[in-house]
Amino acid sequence: MITLVKRPTPSRLWIVLTPLVAVLLTMVAGAALFAMLGKDPIEAIRTIFWDPLFNPQFAAYSRPQLLVKAGPLILIAIGLSLGFRAGIWNIGAEGQYIMGAICGAAVGLAAYPIDAWWVFAAMVLGGLAGGTAWAMIPAVLRVAFKTNEILVSLMLVYVAENLLASMAVGALRNPEGGGFPGSRNLSQYPAAANPELIAGTGMHWGVVAAFIAVIFAYVILSRHMLGFQIRLTGQSPRAARFAGVNAARLILICLGISGGLAGLAGLFEVSGPAGQISIDFGSGYGFTAIIVAFLGRLNPIGILLAGLLMALTYIGGELAQFMLGLPASAIQVFQGMLLMFLLALDVLTNYSLRWRKRETA
Amino acid sequence: MSIKTILASATVALSLSTAAFAQDPTKVGFVYVGPVNDGGWSQHHHESVMEMKEHFGDAIELVEQASVPEGADAERVFTQMALSGADVIFATSFGYMDPIINVAAKFPDVKFEHATGYKTAENVGVYSARFYEGRAVEGLLAGEMTKSNKIGYIGSFPIPEVIRGINASYLEAKKVNPDVEMSVVWLNTWFDPAKEADAAQALIDNGVDVVLQHTDSTAPQITAQKAGDVYTFGQAADMAEFAPMPRISSIIDVWAPYYIERVQAVIDGTWESDNTWDGIGAGMVGIGEITDAVPADVKADAEALRDAIAAGDYHPFTGPINKQDGSVWLAEGEVADDGALAGLNFYVEGLTGDIPQ
Amino acid sequence: MGSIDPLVLLAAIMMASTPILLAALGEMVVERAGVLNLGVEGMMITGAIVGFVAAYESGSPTLGFVTAALGGALISLLFGVLTQFLMSNQVATGLALTLFGLGLSSLIGQSYSGLRAPLTPDLHIPVLSDLPVVGRVLFQHDAMVYVALALVVGVWAFLKFTRAGLILRAVGESHDAAHALGYRVKLVRLCAIAFGGALAGLGGAYLSLVRVPSWTDGMTAGAGWIALALVVFASWKAFRVLAGAYLFGGISVLQLNLQAAGSKVPADLLSMSPFLATILVLVIISARKKGATAAPAMLGRVFHASQ
After folding, report:
1. Which sequence ranges are marked TM in the entry (chain C) (predicted)?
2. What is the pTM of this model?
């Protein structure tokens, strides 16, 4: 029978190969699915993976949009990956993202209509504070009472969603919006807007922040004491304790960073692409980012690529919907398959397959 | 200019010329907020679009996209549609308002139509239906049919559109039945079948025997059917499968004629930005058949009300009407103007409870 | 306006709570085996659609529920194989399962929206159903309400009294020790995952066959996430899952009833209260036990037998 034997170090070959194989397998399985739905499978696959990048009609617009869509995913996933590496499980990034958006937008809306440079700066601080504070709840509970942070951070997502709905119809509602839910549009309030920095590139402050976060995480993990502590704690909490790592401090730092980055992502989204606090502002970026973090193997460069890949399937999927009439659900299944294949094949990087005779397991 | 772009533009030019040769069909795009089989709002738009497509046949090319979240994703979808060569794009949800205005500014040659919004531009028209006219007819039926003198209203979000409907039906119910009381249950969702079923059950458990709904699923109908002596009204769609009981009538969104008219205008090159708010008279709001569960005289009254509204002889918001706090809103004979109705955010006198803020 | 009749309210709560009760009970068993499956929502909605299709095509609600359980179990095995044999991360895989399940169900359900499920009859239990007042409230529901209650007792007894239950708990507390004792950790976990999937499927089907009863896209509307919260709230104990389900279901039903009765209620505060209560319970448990939470020790950890 086949058994898995743990490799002493992850296979470099398979680190590169698994995503490629997974994408190929998804293309094959997806093509079968699209064929079953009566669509031309080749054309569907081409529309999803090729057209957003190279179709002359769309590419000039779609390529920058990849950055807009991937930016928040990468920013959140980078923060999460630090904690995940140390065995600290923040799965409530969606809640921190929403709270960052609420707090940041609240600052901007309170300042309306002041036109000064510090408005946006204050909003950034507000977003950072909102996300960090929301993540500090599970962090402090974990440190003080050893309460499981997975569950607390998850519960707080629902609380944040309820808060968002009540803010959109209540405190933050646009007073000139005819009673409709939703705040003022921040992208139409220049001092608070987060516009495209260079026209036609999709770059806004959130994307810039995502790139900075990638570099920052890379440096921390490879050259900094904190990175060493994170990796050591992840590999062996006991060894880390002997090495003098302060576990409580690490929990506070990791959750704080991930919450802060998620909050920033929320702020940049609400002041830029989304524009306003609305009832369904929370679009699941916080959960998708968890998947992105794992697809990127908790490695900053990997996360950058995984975020772009996810964004590509979103944008290509949209194109396939209206160009070919594929149902939205088929695209969702397609994305699900891609994730499943990636997760399934990941085993090959850390384990090798061996044939061996059957023995008592 | 690289070879690639030259080639690309050559292909585009080529395909454009062949398309022009084959009598370039007008490309019409539709974007929905929900899935096209949600049983309510999006499904009904989609079905109207199918009618429109049937009318034009090959003269138009139809592209649709469902389940598009409001916000940044919507803006991208509109842009991509415009880039793909759409001549007119219909955005069928209120939350698409700011994205559509942004995209319209970038594509001055593309026409945009936005349902239920209020921001227009040179190439952006808005359209909505005066559902409150239908609500008034429902209110009359509810006031007449209730035996417990308690009617229930399942509300979605506390926005003017919904509050208008609540006020319109309550005013009419009160007119025919001074003892009537109305309970409003707010769900904060347009569509959540389980929650809607629970809400209908809660109302029925509290003695309500007529349930009106401003949410989109048929769950309240089924709950009422199980409970027995409870009346309901179809919402958005006719929901005729629940007739004659519990569904005794319905408000139907009739979009197809409007879509046909506007797409025709695009084909003819006569399209202009508009602000359409039509009701029963123009045929945008349909009153579904009033079933035999309703006594003949009540049915006649309801139909008379419907016809009076359609003819413009009667406006459901005609004074004297006081606000909930007792202050005067409309004096004797005064009719609410469209501006006041569009932003309506208070209950009329007699309704209990608060509008959630 | 009228006051709320507590007995009628209880009857409504029994119905409203059944889907989350079933799903949470299944997830509890999964977690007791040391596995965290965040894909409950995906399994529920899969159960909702396959149960609906089977019941609609065959006209038999019973067949619908059986199919829903099988469908839920089948899709949960996708998670099982990935996490147990391919050792993928449970959090990520569970989330992927939810995404996959939501898409799949909506794809299957395309041609089934707007149709009516065959009616699941209410039981008429001799003697009990005829009791005055109580009989009508407690003993005239459909069979699934009682199946769910029976499952609570069954799961409790299984975990407490049977050898298999002991093994399952041992696997959840220390997979290495269980492995050393010769138990097949992965097999036990796979069975638990499938059981959890089956119950989530039943919970979903209860929505599409009894409570709503018709198919609509995304109709579970977050019930799976509430079930996850519920397991924690119940600190992994069967009867507390029952109490929690009635409490969670009760709060949402009560909220609607208070509105219907004309009381002024802060609706958003009430709707977030179950989650705040769950956090509070978690903190109290962990503070009281000085860190030894009630959570199974191996929750979410990957097991790989090193030779």
Report:
1. 6-26, 38-56, 62-82, 94-113, 143-159, 187-209, 215-234, 241-258, 270-287
2. 0.86
